[in-house]
Amino acid sequence: MKKRQVDWWRVSAFSICTLFLLGGICMMVNQSMAKSTSVAHKQAFALYTKKCLGCHDSVADPEKPGRTRDDWHLVVNVMHKYGMDMTTDEADVIIELLYDLRQGMEREAG
To answer: Which of 2, 50, 61, 71 has the fewest CB atoms within 10 Å around its CB?
Structure first.
């Protein structure tokens, strides 16, 4: 039986093409995830504008210390005492938005 010789150029070319194909697929998935995150962020900000900006100017005050998700949960849920009617799902969306807006300035719950 004759041993078949491997053509390394073909193997290398196939490997490189496969890597480029996988890289392209990953980039497309990343872009679609970024678009859906952007849409979700816009919807969350619209909800925040509707529910919160009537009484509050902004959350982007750089002088205030950062808050954890737990802190934002307490703040948002205290608003029920002031007559804010909001579902639990709406509150969760606003909590995530407020945390994400200040990301990098926050400290994690310890």
So the answer is: 2
Q: Can you tell me the distance from the alpha carbon of 106 to that of 110, in angstroms, rounded to the nearest whole number?
A: 12
Nearest to residue 103, comparing CAs of 72, 77, 67?
67
Spatial separation of the C-alpha atoms in residues 55 and 76, rounded to whole Å: 13
Q: 109, exposed or middle or buried, with CB in 10 Å at 0-12, 13-18, 19+?
A: exposed
One-letter amino acid of 31: Q
Q: Decide: 45 and 97 in contact? Cβ < 8 Å.
A: yes
Look up the pTM and report it: 0.55
In a domain, 107, yes or no: no
Per residue in 34-72, pLDDT tens? 665 667 888 888 888 888 877 776 655 544 566 778 888
Query: Does residue 57 sit within a domain?
Result: yes
Q: Is residue 32 part of a domain?
A: yes
